[in-house]
Amino acid sequence: MPLSPPPPLGAHFLPSGAYGGRVVMVTGGGTGLGKSIALEFARLGAKVAIVSRSNFEAGVAAIKADGGEAFGAAMDVRDPASVAACFDAVEAALGPVDVLINNAAGNFEVPADRMSPNAWKTVVDIVLNGTFYCAREFGLRRLKAGKGGAVLNVGAPYAATGGPSTAHSAAAKAGVNNLTWSLAVEWAPDNIRINTLAPGFYPEKDRSNHSVEAGSSAANLDAQIAKRMQTIPGGRVGQARELGWLATFLCSDYANYLTGHVIVLDAANWLRRWHSTAPFEPIRESFDRRKREAEEAAAAKGGS
User: Fold this and answer.
1) 195: nearest Cα among 160, 241, 246
2) Mean pLDDT per 10-residue segment, the chain (304 residues)
3) Which of the residues 158, 202, 254, 257 is marked catalytic?
4) DSSP of 245-280, one letter per residue?
5) Cα 210 vs. chain centroid, distance in angstroms?
6) What whole-number distance in Å separates Cα of residue 48 and Cα of residue 98?
7) Which of 72, 115, 231, 293 can bridge 60 by disulfide, Cβ–Cβ 3.0-4.6 Å?
8) What is the pLDDT of residue 80?
9) Confidence (pLDDT) at 13
10) Distance between CA atoms of residues 294 and 273, nearest Å
11) What is the pLDDT of residue 283?
């Protein structure tokens, strides 16, 4: 029997209004898990800023449709000047940012010997450098104002184990973990907390997170879910609202003594790797096989 399902969508993890009067910025919050996290903050009364390079409109629309207050702005997390300008825009529209969610990420599967230098640089720039630039800008503003705050980085379980075929992302996420630990010590005296939340497999209709296999699409997402359910100790995949609930707790007053932690939310799946693993298949062969299978499935569907 799998782990029990979560309460229904819309249920509150914290008291209603727990984030009333606070401004929460979510990078990459226009789709997927970022949008789900943003929605949970809005449901608790936060004014939410959805920021990304281009696709923030969907996140803003979802929050407003749910009765919340949201503002969208363009930000390229790889560019410190863009980050600072976006913070200015959010402050002008909603007020100073109290909580920062570093959710923006980039990833795709490719064996390291086939990975171009540009591919490595792009992912590291978004995941690690972008997280630092946003956290630094947030910290500078809170320190100047003499106020505390909370930062939550969205990490990945494979930051602790390595990520064959995703070396760029795994290395960058490992850097995010270390950044979390480092800044937690530096900023604790200033009442600024920072933690990392590492999700397992949380399939979303508009965009699934980093754990989805190469070649994935809406057409084969159901098949992937069924396959993953057989490998996760908890017997089911995660629901996005579960991630949102934990995010709202970690950044709330109820977690004021919690800083410098990396919390994995994946039904014990990452721990399973130490005890039970499938027969090893060389990474290049695995990558090519799954790519071929995805292409064959797409062709079969197109011909039916």
Assistant:
1) 246
2) 86 91 97 94 97 93 97 97 98 98 94 96 97 98 98 95 92 98 98 96 62 48 78 82 95 97 89 66 87 86 70
3) 158
4) HHHHHHTSGGGTT--S-EEEESTTHHHHTTT--PPP
5) 9
6) 10
7) 72
8) 98
9) 83
10) 25
11) 84
Ordered by where they begin, the domains of the chain are 23-303 (3.40.50.720)
CA angle 23, 148, 156 (to 5 degrees): 70
Phi, psi of 142 (to 5 degrees): -70, -40
Cβ-count burial of 261 within 10 angstroms (0-12 exposed, 13-18 middle, 19+ buried)?
A: middle
pLDDT at 99: 98
User: What is d(CA 125, CA 213) in angstroms, rounded to the nearest whole number?
Assistant: 22
CB 180 within 8 A of CB 195: yes
Helix 130-145 to helix 80-93 angle (10° resolution) is 50
Q: Are 121 and 100 in contact (CB under 8 A)?
A: no
The closest of 142, 243, 247, 127 to 179, measured between CA atoms, is 127
| Gap between the Cα atoms of 267 and 2, Å rounded | 10
Give the pLDDT score at 273.
62
